[in-house]
Design brief:
heterodimer, A: about 325 residues, B: alpha+beta, 16 helices, 23 strands, about 30% helix
């Protein structure tokens, strides 16, 4: 038990260090980028005095470490700064946009799990058969090789010609009701999830195939258990850990992919907010959105690690799941 | 003098922002598009569409645009620098005069005007007009607004000309005196930066123009979410009448061309603006949609950096050879599928503009250009051509220019950078950190207005890549001050030729706008020509269909 607690504490510490590292990295990286926020905000020919006034207004005239600690201090109080462009609170802007990205990501995750896991089990169980192998390969190839912006553009064109009740641009908040939100987000969520469905199906298939050759499966077959029973009670239970581990990676992918999808489908989420902020060298916006995305990923990974260790205590002891 | 210099400097800064930020907008036509263009039938002389007066319903209209206002001074119309800002703010604010489909000046808040001599304008003001807070417009608002603009550091103050005095000369009369004749004066008054502001409220501090829009125009701002949307509601007290069919106007900002196309197809927007010429054909076959191409006076141009040390482009002969090698008609035919036309520095669709085929570079032989490059050894140096990634059409133009310059032995390397880097390297760096680049100018509605930007002492944004040429500057000044049409045409011809020979900013072709609308949602009035990028210029005449 102590070993598990020690391992968990280590994971929490590791998560905090990761976030600290991300905060330093993004803070420095955005300032090293060529192109200046003064040119965007004031125009290229603003006087030195105007530039100085702007820098002072946002504390950008201070040494970089002073700026960093001031920012981190703000972050710890939940205040993420002020956008140089809109002059509004970044936290406020993000609170309005998080529901969009969250809904999109959750829908994409739901599609991933509902399609990827069953497909992976089916192709894994039927791995010896021609049908299962072919389907698995086709789905994986398409899902992994077609870029989101290509698929998204095709979907936008096709569904704008034949709408089928689905929207190809714009967001309807959950407050407007389930159906408008579903109409607006289903297509973006489907496009966003294609890669993840393929990756999940492949991982699940491999995990299932790995479990199927285990002696206890042979024993279950020998006991006369039905195929369905074997899959539910033996295969899924043992194949679950790699799938669970994959969820963290998929979440990171979905958050990253949301940047493209939100821009393509004109969704006012965090991704499009970050892209706009980056283009304008709006430091506060970029720092806040990147740190938030990193925090979501780190926290989720931590939770998944803890769940994994609860399901398989060997993870906490040896650092890796047992087979 | 200090103020003038400062004014010019800010004006130039604004121009540069206008160039750079407004250039975030376009998309591109496929290089392989067929040349020739499509024949467009006008609904009436000078109009691509005319609203159906038989439609009497009122309602809401959604219009999708490619980018939002993004001004350093917020919502202040007098410092607005991009055409989208002018259009959006023009829904709330009004000017003394406006332009019609033939670029002729028409009354607006000034019901009439007289010009007793070349330098005096006497405006009769419509004092029945009210601001949306209910206060009546006064001559003091007009005087204060124009004085504020002239004294401002805005891009537009440089276009207002040599204004000497602005006085109220009656309860409904304002007299403006110029120091010398200035032909584009009324055209300068016709754009949103010359808007008439609620000066009483501005002066007493009850209205902050950077955050609040309070004008005499047809609409009130109900909501604005930066880079997402604007919602306007009809101004019930608008002096233009109570016949506004579009009672609620929503402007949605959708930067992806394909998404705007899709929204128009599926009916989630009633109208949309496009910059991709291919939208004409891609949307043309859709039932219920009408797609029109509005000719803008805006123009694309190549920046040729003559100020970079040890560059072959320091040599005017080399620059002229490059200008000669650039085939404007090929750019119009290939990049824009024949849907636009070449232009000199005076926008060719404006009355009195110079003829493109008379430009020295159009008449020079490409063999001579090739010989110049060989003689000077300029072909031994690889030139970089920098373009902003946010504007794909400029990358398309760059590719064609690269091929055209290869014909005379000039090797070009295209470099694509984002907007912030582009501004830094092209406009902020002194000298400019590039060899060649591509950008665009708003063309306005008088042929001499845009020519000011060929004088770096007036424009200022281009001091990093162009030289000062007294003869060219004199022609620019003369083109603006000459009021006799025939004499002015001669000056402008000479001006075009001079700028063409210096070849530091080489005009290419006009930048067209594609406008699509759902005929089951709206019946708009759209002019065939536009000088200030205002596709909603006739919004008060629109009718709601269905």
């Amino acid at each position: 038990m102590m070993q598990i607690l020690r391992w968990s504490a280590g994971r929490v510490m590791s998560a905090l260090i990761t976030l600290l590292g991300v905060s330093v990295l993004i803070f420095v990286a955005i300032r090293l980028m060529p192109g200046s926020y003064e040119d965007i905000i004031l125009g290229p020919l603003a006087s030195a005095e105007e530039r100085q006034l702007l820098a002072e207004a946002y504390g950008l005239d201070q040494p970089i470490f002073v700026q960093y600690f001031a920012w981190i201090g703000q972050v710890l109080t939940g205040e993420l700064g002020t956008s140089y462009v809109t002059q509004s609170s970044v936290s406020g802007e993000m609170l309005e946009r998080i529901p969009v990205t969250a809904t999109l990501t959750i829908m994409a995750m739901a599609v991933t799990l509902l399609a990827g896991v069953p497909l992976g089990i089916w192709t894994g169980v039927r791995s010896g058969a021609k049908q299962g192998g072919a389907v698995g390969r086709v789905v994986s190839s398409i899902g992994i090789s077609v870029p989101e912006f290509v698929l998204g553009s095709i979907v936008i064109f096709v569904f704008s010609q034949f709408s089928l009740g689905l929207k190809v641009g714009g967001f309807a908040s959950i407050g407007t009701g389930f159906w408008p939100t579903f109409q607006a987000l289903l297509l973006p969520a489907l496009v966003l999830s294609v890669f993840c469905v393929a990756a999940t199906a492949r991982t699940t298939r491999d995990a299932v195939m790995g479990v199927l050759v285990e002696p206890h499966i042979t024993a279950a077959v020998a006991r006369g258990e039905t195929a369905g029973h074997i899959v539910r009670h033996h295969v899924l239970r043992n194949a679950g850990i790699p799938i669970l581990t994959l969820l963290g990676t998929i979440t990171a992918y979905l958050l990253g992919g949301a940047v493209i999808i939100e821009t393509l489908f004109n969704l006012p989420g965090l991704g499009s907010f970050m892209v706009t902020g980056l283009g304008r060298r709006d430091f506060a916006v970029v720092q806040a959105t990147v740190l938030f995305a990193a925090a979501v990923f780190v926290v989720l990974s931590l939770v998944l690690d803890l769940i994994t260790s609860a399901l398989d205590p060997r993870v906490a002891v040896t650092g890796k799941a047992g087979s | 003098m200090l103020i003038n210099q400062r004014t010019r400097s800010r004006a130039a800064a604004g121009a540069a922002i206008a160039l750079s930020l407004a250039c975030v907008l376009t998309s591109c036509a496929a290089p392989g598009s067929a040349p020739g263009g499509t024949e467009q039938t006008e609904a009436a002389p000078g109009f691509l569409a005319v609203a159906d007066e038989a439609l009497t319903g009122t309602g809401a209209l959604t219009v999708q645009l490619d980018y939002d206002t993004s001004e350093a001074d917020g919502l202040d119309p007098q410092t607005a620098q991009t055409d989208t800002s002018w259009m959006i703010m023009g829904l709330v604010y009004e000017t003394l005069v406006t332009t019609d489909e033939n670029f002729e000046i028409q009354p607006k808040l000034a019901t009439s005007w007289e010009q007793p001599d070349d330098t005096t304008y006497v405006f009769t003001i419509d004092t029945t007009a009210t601001f949306s807070n209910g206060r009546a417009l006064t001559v003091d608002d007009v005087v204060g607004s124009l004085e504020r603009q002239v004294a401002s550091m805005s891009v537009w103050s440089g276009q207002m000309g040599p204004v000497e005095s602005i006085e109220a000369t009656g309860d409904d009369q304002v007299t403006v005196k110029l120091g010398s004749p200035y032909a584009p004066f009324l055209a300068a008054l016709a754009n949103t930066p010359a808007a008439i502001l609620p000066m009483e409220e501005v002066n007493d501090g009850s209205v902050d123009l950077t955050t609040t829009m309070l004008g005499t125009g047809p609409y009130l701002v109900a909501d604005h979410r930066q880079d997402e949307s604007w919602t306007f509601t009809a101004n019930p007290d608008w002096h233009g009448g109570d016949n506004l069919a579009v009672q609620t106007l929503e402007l949605q900002i959708v930067d992806q061309e394909s998404t705007r196309q899709a929204a128009l197809r599926e009916g989630s927007t009633g109208m949309a603006k496009f910059v991709n010429i291919d939208s004409l054909s891609q949307l043309g076959g859709n039932e219920g949609l009408q797609i029109v191409k509005q000719t803008q006076s805006d123009l694309y141009y190549v920046l040729v950096n003559s100020q970079k040390p040890d560059s072959p482009l320091n040599d005017q002969d080399v620059r002229f050879a490059i200008n000669t090698a650039i085939d404007r008609q090929a750019i119009a035919d290939i990049v824009f599928a024949g849907e636009t036309t070449p232009t000199g520095i005076t926008p060719s669709n404006l009355p009195g503009a110079c003829r493109v085929d008379e430009l020295p570079s159009e008449q020079a032989a490409i063999e001579d250009a090739r010989a110049t490059i060989e003689e000077t050894g300029a072909g031994d140096v690889e030139l970089d051509l920098i373009v902003d990634t946010s504007n794909p059409v400029m990358a398309q133009i760059a590719q064609l220019v690269q091929q055209q310059l290869a014909e005379i032995g000039v090797t070009v390397r295209i470099e694509q950078v984002d907007t912030a880097i582009y501004i830094e390297r092209v406009f902020s760096a002194q000298p400019g950190d590039f060899d060649l680049s591509i950008s665009w100018f708003a063309g306005y509605s008088d042929p001499s207005m845009v020519t000011k930007w060929w004088n770096p002492e007036q424009a200022f944004f281009n001091v990093g890549f162009t030289g000062v040429h007294e003869d060219l500057n004199a022609l620019i000044a003369e083109g603006a001050s000459e009021t006799d049409p025939d004499a002015r045409a001669e000056v402008l011809t000479e001006l075009c030729a001079s700028a063409d020979e210096y070849a530091e900013m080489v005009p290419l072709v006009h930048r067209p706008s594609i406008i699509g609308f759902d005929t089951t949602a709206v019946s708009p009035t759209i002019q065939s020509n536009e000088g200030y990028g205002n596709i909603l210029r006739n919004i008060a005449d629109y009718r709601i269909a269905g």
